[in-house]
Amino acid sequence: MTLQDKSVIITGAGSGLGAAAAVSIARQGGKLTLVDMNADGLKATESAVKEAAPQAEVLLVTADVTDEKQVQDYVDQHVKAYGAIDGFFNNAGIEGKQNLTEDFTNAEFQKVIAVNLTGVFLGMEKVLKVMGEQGHGAIVNTASVGGIRGVGNQSGYAAAKHGVVGLTRNSAIEYGQKGVVINAIAPGAIMTPMVEGSLRQMGGDNWEEVGKEFVQPNPMKRFGKPEEVGALVAFLLSNEAGFINGTVIPIDGGQHIKY
């Protein structure tokens, strides 16, 4: 159990990648603080964690990752409960509306930036202060394939995720000597509620057929599973990945190599 007794904060833990990572980490012995705005989603994830690992320690914190005080609060609650922050899956995010760049409103753009970039920065800022002082830790930020190449009709999302890549690489330079490793994952089409929402924007009631077409450019011609991403996150937070730093790892079935 490679994460035995390690304590991990996960944002965006109420569904999708955050929930899958929580289960994977708990199975490996990790102790969890699960953060999300959706209290019902957090309870559902806690139930899934307890089913997979009945002895797992789980703390639930309802918080908005764009609010600095609430970010500090989830960090403080975690440290009070567990004494240290061994790992941080900085995952909360939204897609936002799909539109041409000229048709985005400033409000729509700023909303996506606030959650997907500012929220990631605030989490890193607060967590790195703790990890730097304790002299160890691992952070995994959720970027996207849209953070390493262009994505049509998603300017806000792509801009934010490119920013996450930059934060990851820059902070890895700063904190490696302090015993902290910082990496990002770049998921492609993973079947999560957020991706389903995107497909519904494109196809309405016909979204499942749109999904079948959506994955055709992928060499594997299928959607990824949240559990596949959760396993990668758990590995990157473990000691076995202790010399991986400043890396952005696509997990997309090979989609990125075709563009």
Automatic annotation (TrEMBL):
UniProt keywords, alphabetically: NAD, Oxidoreductase
A GO molecular-function descriptor: oxidoreductase activity
- One Pfam annotation reads adh_short_C2
State the Gene3D superfamilies in the record.
NAD(P)-binding Rossmann-like Domain
| Cross-referenced InterPro entries | KR_dom (IPR057326), NAD(P)-bd_dom_sf (IPR036291), SDR_fam (IPR002347)
The Ketoreductase domain sits at 6-188
- What protein family is recorded? Belongs to the short-chain dehydrogenases/reductases (SDR) family.
What is the protein's given name?
NAD(P)-dependent dehydrogenase, short-chain alcohol dehydrogenase family
